[in-house]
Amino acid sequence: PFQSSPVFEGVYNNARMLHFLTAVVGSTCDIRVKNGSVYEGIFKTLSSRCELAVDAVHKRSEEEGSTSAPPRREEITDTMIFSPSDLVTMICRDVDLNYATRDSFTDTAISSSRVNGEHKEKVLQRWEGGDSNGESYDLENDTSNGWDANEMFRYNEVKYGVTSTYDSSLSMYTVPLERGSSEGYRQREARAARLASEIESSPQYRHRVSLENEEGKTEEEKYSAVVRDGADRERGRESPRDRERERGRDSPGANSREGKYIPLPQRQREMNRERDRADRGPGGPSPHNRLSGGYRSTPPSSSSSSSPRPPLPSAAGPQAGVSPAERSSPLSGRGGGFAPHHPQGSPTAQSPASPPAPHGHSVPHSHSLPHSLSDAGRPVNGGEWKVSSEAKPQPPAASPSQPQPSPAPAEEPTKDTSTAPNTTAASTGPISDRQSPAAPQPARTPGSEEVRSETTERTEGVADQVKKSTLNPNAKEFNPIKPQMPMSKPNTAPTPPRPTPPSPVVLQHPGGQGPLYNGPYLSYVSQIHSVPLKSWCLNSTPPSGSVVAPRSDHGTSAPPMLQAAASAAGAPLVASPYPQSYLQYNPQQYSQQQVIQAMTPYPGQPVYPMLQGGARMIGQGGAPHPQALGPPGGPQFPAQGDGPQGPQQGIYAPQSFSHHSGAVHQPQPSSTPTGNQPPPQHAAPSPGQNAQSGPQPQSLYHSGPLSAPTPPNMPPGHTSPQGSYPIQGYSIHGHQGIPHTYPLGQLAQAHVQGAMSGPHHSGSHGQPQLVMLQPPPPQQGPGSVPQHPQHGPQQGAHQHFYIGHPQAMQVQTHPSPFHPPGN
Amino acid sequence: MAAPGPGEYFSVGSHVSCLTCLGQRLQGEVVAFDYQSKMLTLKCASSSGKPNLNDVILINLAYVSEVDIINDRTETPPPLASLNVSKLANRARTEKEDKLSQAYAISAGVSVEGQQLFQTIHKTIKDCKWQEKNIIVMDDVVISPPYQAENCKGKEGSALSHVRKIVEKHFRDVESQKSMQRSQAQQTQKDSTLSS
């Protein structure tokens, strides 16, 4: 306000005067007036006419400066205003003029800040980024992007004697892929190539990719990515095979570095080949994969350069493992992994967000996303992966079998129950309408079905592979912080989920929520269902109960799980920044559903520390008011209020988003039905839930959108038309992975976990969530929470984290806040 | 800002000395001057001698009889940093509350010793307040007149023992201060006798 006012009056025009008089606000001042009396008080503010407002004023005895006895209460006047015409002097003693500026991040503040208690001026060093003021700076030519890591290591070693233990092979996190010539290896490789081609040959996928790469590309996306050197360079190395990865993890050391999956766009040039590839059976030995399309599985010899194969992409040379084309592809970009983004035209890699997928292999961090995408079924994180493997033994049946009784008012509850794919398709139709723009749903359905069939087959194979896998059991889980990035880029939501036939849930949700939701978000509809569940959980759980406690309360393991899932979903909510449009999407619901599914198979699953995520979820779910849940702030805050977790949640939120989205997607497409199931089970225990569920849909969760953008979508399995929508992307997983080998629930969990912190076990999430749930409800007001995250819960310090404190705002020169008139 | 004629305004950074109509001489560095309201703001070394603190004086030049410029500014003043207003507002509020709280205690007839003790404790533990004549520390420990260590009551625990230590140290310091003053007084007496 003050800032906006164009004209300041009187003293307010004098920036310096205003600054110094503002800087002494809150200090004790002695005001001497014309008649010689001295008043002491706390300086509060001044008006534009330089009238001074002083609080808690008492008249001092005559002796000057004497620290006379403190005043009695009755001698103190609450507030006095001194007119400039009466004022002779105002003396503020012992004022720290930097009191209110210390926290500002300015050169002055930095240079004058204390160092270890010493008041030593720091000498600022000139930035040596080039002497032209950034104008003649040549971005293209400057290959040195800051310090080289090795340079840093060397510097530290020389200067501080610190020796880095960094191992570029990242052996702590992964195991090198042994490129064997064994039959099994070749088969896997071939299969990976086939899967990739299948996915990439999907029109929907391509459409999506083109959208991502060209239309949706922002300038930043175009130019912020690391530039790859020549495509030819070391492609072999960088191009790890997705498949291998996907399989993943089954394969003996799927080195992230070794085999990279190159996103379609990059390979566009090779598109033709890809199609060819489809023809080639999966079984075929890896050697002639090049056509296979995007996947550039490098031959055993990781370094492409060394490999005899011709660099040309076009060359169809019968090179063994890797197609030459692949190498030629831009992706090859050096280890950077960022390469995917190339501008090269339409084919360019997915948007920044997406990059993780492609990079994933090359870069350890990226793993999660890419993997999940490619194989749909596979969890991104190592942890997830594990889960999935466990799940494998279990029949996919879970997803279809589970009928979801959606408590929500969803339009098509009945449909939900039906697991048949056909029904889903039907349902999709209507949904799409609601969604409006996205229309993708319909498209994806078909694709998804196809995918599915394939998937099933694959999954079986995968299971075998998994058993064989020699992955390093001690490998650390990778917790990608990157997920956050996705948030920024919602658009990218690369992975179009494949609509699984079995997922009626999705449809149902849309119906109920349909009006509210935007087209893209339709998939989130499922939320409704979840909501009731959540509510139930809340009720059952004790307010402050420990994680474990909640379960006991529920009696059924499932509820906690659900909650956990919800919590996972909830995290996205935190993102609140997103428009209400996203609200509709209830990650929680999905997650819950998923969780439930998961639960079924593994009731006893251990709970992991994921609490944070869970907490979030809980908060959302727990919140009695759907509305509260909806806004980003809502969910988080409630949780926070309960416990210390709040802050953490905030931190993790970004990640969670991505995860959530993943979770969400899954449930919708494939698992949807399953998700529905849980509600019925729980329904009995918690009647109240239903009621909540009704409103919940409205609550809208922002998280959905956020998550969407996250990497999960990235996956190659774009087959689903939905692909354009982030959320949908998740669905893919469900289709592929879930149905077949992995129980839906498990998959969902995996996603959730990933979202939370990466490799968390779903089980763990559940518990934490429970805890969170109870607290949130009381705290959150029904209505208020959702919209204004900051205001809402008022949650405490934690919340502040996310939300900028209004108070924190710094007023530069103008004390405006203090001066009503001025403003 | 209306441009005052040459010689009529102060340049920021110069050092001036003023004599008010009340006979008070003030000296410091000009940090701000408002021509319209005739207000001059000076920054002076802290009267308590602390290096990181300053005294800030707002002078109404309408009541100044004499102004001397000791030296003109030598450098361009640094740019103004932004201020965290909410932080300032919070300070104003807590300062006021503290003052009022103290005033309540005095009104209740708390002895000077009690007030001093309160100030001492308050330096260490912000969470202390008056309740009638009792000092309540952290809502846990009650110190009642005559405010000796044995007057600290509360749940046995670290809080109580901690407060006791503070109280004991406070009175120890007061004692040592008194004795020092005494010795100093004696010293000055000796000096004066010697010199005379």
TrEMBL record, chain A:
InterPro entries for the chain: ATXN2-like (IPR045117), LsmAD_domain (IPR009604), PAM2_motif (IPR009818), SM_dom_ATX (IPR025852)
Comp. bias (Polar residues): 687-701
Highest taxon of the lineage: Eukaryota
SMART domains to which the protein is assigned, alphabetical: LsmAD
GO cellular component labels: cytoplasmic stress granule
Ranges of Pro residues composition bias in the record: 393-410, 493-504
GO molecular function, one term: mRNA binding
One GO BP annotation of this record: stress granule assembly
Residue ranges, annotated region (Disordered): 196-505, 611-823
Biased composition (Basic and acidic residues): 209-250, 267-280, 447-467
Biased composition (Low complexity): 297-307, 343-352, 359-374, 417-428, 623-650, 781-796
Domain LsmAD positions: 160-229
Family to which this protein belongs: Belongs to the ataxin-2 family.
Protein name, as recorded: LsmAD domain-containing protein
Organism: Myripristis murdjan
Automatic annotation (TrEMBL), chain B:
Region annotation Disordered: where it falls in the sequence: 172-196
SMART domains: AD
Sm domain residues: 3-73
Entries under PROSITE patterns matching the protein: AD, SM
GO molecular function, one term: RNA binding
InterPro entries: AD (IPR047574), Lsm12-like (IPR039683), LSM12_ABD (IPR019181), LSM12_LSM (IPR048478), Sm (IPR047575)
Residue stretches making up the AD domain: 81-175
CDD domains membership: LSm12_N
UniProt biased composition (Polar residues): 177-196
Similarity section: Belongs to the LSM12 family.
Protein name, as recorded: LSM12 homolog b
Gene name of the encoded protein: LSM12
